[in-house]
């Protein structure tokens, strides 16, 4: 896929998802895809390698959570793997302080390298090699006002772990493959002293794959 077809598809996908990105973001994502596929030939980072799929399943799927991140100043992406959703979010919202954490050294090696590539607009993004176990200070991880993860843990385990990384007033964001009813989300939240802030079901624009994103905050905040 050439750069202009990629940019066109990306813009159409963002429009369908209702998220806005700057003019230069498609071009920078195209270059990020080049870095990802180049590294992936040496280091196993992702099984998704067809450009159409990288565009939708990695990039658009990451950008789809922009509404849950608007207004935030800091994001912690736990189990970021090859940088999803953290890298596309940083590209789309340059003012966000993004920290990505992963337990696998070679993935973090890629992340540390890619954030320094000139022109990608990823400067200042941090990548930390550690196991996230809910002890931010001991793990060298910052607290953030949006703590999110994709394809990392099932919802109950995620809601047990993630609140430890919140600053007061922050939100835990859960990206779910299959939509859950709001009552079930509220119940899982309530068991852990959390409150459901929002829940939104949608489909990815080209494959129509089902997705849901839910945000939670600590009760009495
Ligand atoms: N979020 C990325 C995505 O959606 O493409 C990667 C998802 S991958 C299925 C899960 C990632 O979580 C892996 O890269 C794995 O190394 C990492 N991981 C698993 N347990 C972890 C932990 N306790 N702390 C940090 N990373 C962890």
UniProtKB/TrEMBL annotation:
Subcellular location: Cytoplasm
Binding site for S-adenosyl-L-methionine: 79, 84, 132-133, 150
GO cellular component, one term: cytosol
Record flagged with keyword Chaperone: no
Pfam families to which the protein is assigned, alphabetical: GidB
UniProt superkingdom: Bacteria
Top-level EC class: transferase
E.C. number(s) listed in UniProt: 2.1.1.-
Signal peptide: none
Record's function text: Specifically methylates the N7 position of a guanine in 16S rRNA.
Stated name of the protein: Ribosomal RNA small subunit methyltransferase G
Organism encoding this protein: Cystobacter ferrugineus
Gene: rsmG
């Amino acid at each position: 896929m050439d750069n202009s077809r990629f940019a066109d598809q990306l813009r159409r996908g963002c429009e369908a998802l209702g998220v806005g990105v700057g003019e230069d973001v498609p071009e920078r994502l195209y270059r990020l895809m080049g870095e990802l596929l180049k590294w992936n030939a040496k280091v196993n980072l992702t099984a998704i390698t067809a450009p159409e799929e990288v565009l939708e399943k990695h990039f658009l799927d990451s950008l789809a959570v922009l509404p849950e991140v608007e207004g935030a100043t800091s994001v912690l992406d736990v189990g970021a793997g090859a940088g999803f959703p953290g890298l596309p979010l940083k590209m789309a919202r340059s003012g966000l302080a993004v920290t990505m954490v992963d337990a696998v050294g070679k993935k973090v090696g890629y992340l540390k390298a890619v954030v320094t590539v000139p022109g990608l607009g990823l400067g200042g993004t941090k990548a930390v090699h550690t196991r996230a176990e809910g002890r931010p200070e001991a793990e060298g991880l910052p607290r953030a006002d949006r703590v999110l993860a994709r394809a990392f843990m099932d919802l109950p385990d995620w809601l047990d772990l993630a609140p430890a990384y919140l600053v007061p007033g922050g939100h835990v964001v859960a990206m779910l493959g299959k939509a859950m009813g709001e009552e079930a989300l509220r119940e899982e939240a309530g068991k852990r002293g959390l409150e459901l802030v929002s829940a939104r079901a949608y489909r990815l624009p080209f494959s129509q794959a089902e997705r849901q994103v839910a945000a939670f905050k600590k009760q009495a905040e």
